[in-house]
Specification:
By secondary structure, this protein is α/β, with parallel strands linked by helices. The chain folds into two domains: 232 residues, Spore Coat Polysaccharide Biosynthesis Protein SpsA, Chain A (Alpha-Beta Complex), CATH 3.90.550.10; 68 residues. It is 48% helix and 14% strand. Helix 2 links the parallel strand 2 and strand 3. The relative contact order is 0.16. The mean pLDDT is 83.
Length: 325
């Protein structure tokens, strides 16, 4: 952990998808907000396969403004992959992630850093006065936040807020895919990170168009199952599959024994007892689950042996030495 209240290099990672109208103002606001940040900084703008002129704008910013870095992915890989690409290229001891749509306020970066100086490793933004539609955005988000907090044990009011600050030591080891970016605080918590939450500003969108809808909620719920598995059974999947397999096998054995008892003690033939078929089904499925657990164990060993496997492909990288605007 970096020493508290000491200057440290800062990286700001911003995923971009069809936000050409927002980028100029975003760069101005970031430059103004970061001007007095000690220790140096860089802003990494990651174009996630935009179909508009976003990368042309990013390229211009990276060439003209010290401290700005431009990355273009080979295709639209999603917000998580874009963040992962920026995080991999980040050189800062502290990494701040935020959106490009001007709804996050760069002035809140200092608030996050001040809270981090109290000894925390992850500081999450909380959009207390969120400027989004209640039915399609806020209600699903509130439900997801409650569910994620309950299942992961890391309680936050606003997992969906991209504006968060992380110590790079806790962020860089994580492998991100799917919609995993919103679970980074929980994943960092599994590593032992100290986590805090602070209120941040949230502005209504005035330029561009929102890229998110209700369909994203279902993806988040599926990824939540993955996170729960990773936290509890990632290193030993046989405990999950084997445990359920043994339980089903034992239940099947009990039912088979009861069937035999009925046959020899009460002369009720097997063909008249549907429990015998149920017992065969349970034993068979239990055996298959144990085999699945063993296969998962093998796959996990392979997973831990694979090095530098990424969920994205960088087509262009533009960087100049970081400095102050």
């Amino acid at each position: 952990m970096a020493e508290q209240n000491q200057p440290r290099r800062l990286s700001v990672v911003v995923p971009v998808y069809n936000e050409e109208d927002c980028l100029g103002r975003l760069a101005d606001d970031l430059g103004a907000a970061l001007r007095d940040i000690p220790g140096g900084w860089e802003v990494i703008l990651v174009d996630d396969g935009s179909s508009d002129r976003s990368f042309e704008v990013i390229s211009g910013l990276a060439k003209e403004r010290p401290g700005f870095v431009g990355i273009r992915l080979g295709r639209n890989a999603g917000q998580t992959a874009a963040l992962a690409a920026g995080i991999a290229e980040a050189r800062g001891e502290v990494i701040v992630c935020m959106d490009a749509d001007l709804q996050n306020d760069p002035r809140d970066i200092k608030t996050l850093l001040d809270k981090m100086d109290e000894g925390y490793d992850v500081v999450s933004g909380w959009r207390v006065d969120r400027q989004d539609a209640w039915l399609t955005r806020r209600l699903p988000s509130q439900t997801a936040n409650w569910l994620i907090s309950r299942i992961t044990g890391v309680h936050l009011h606003d997992y969906g807020c991209t504006l968060k600050a992380y110590r790079a030591a806790y962020l860089k080891p994580l492998r991100l895919y799917g919609e995993m970016h919103r679970f980074i605080p929980a994943l960092s918590g599994f590593l032992g990170a100290g986590i805090a939450e602070v209120p941040v500003r949230h502005h209504a969108r005035t330029l561009g168009k929102s890229k998110y809808g209700l369909s994203r909620t279902f993806k988040v719920l599926l990824d939540l199952l993955t996170v729960k598995f990773m936290s509890a059974y990632m290193a030993k999947p046989i405990y999950l599959f084997g445990g359920w397999g043994l339980a089903m096998g034992l239940l099947g054995g009990v039912l088979a024994s009861f069937t035999l008892y009925q046959r020899f003690c009460h002369h009720i033939y097997v063909k008249d007892q549907p429990l015998f078929q149920v017992s065969i089904f349970l034993v068979t499925v239990g055996f298959q689950m144990i085999l699945m657990g063993l296969l998962a164990e093998i796959l996990i060993r392979v997973y831990f042996d694979i090095k530098d496997k990424k969920a994205y492909f960088i087509r262009d990288l533009i960087r100049r030495d970081a400095g102050k605007a």
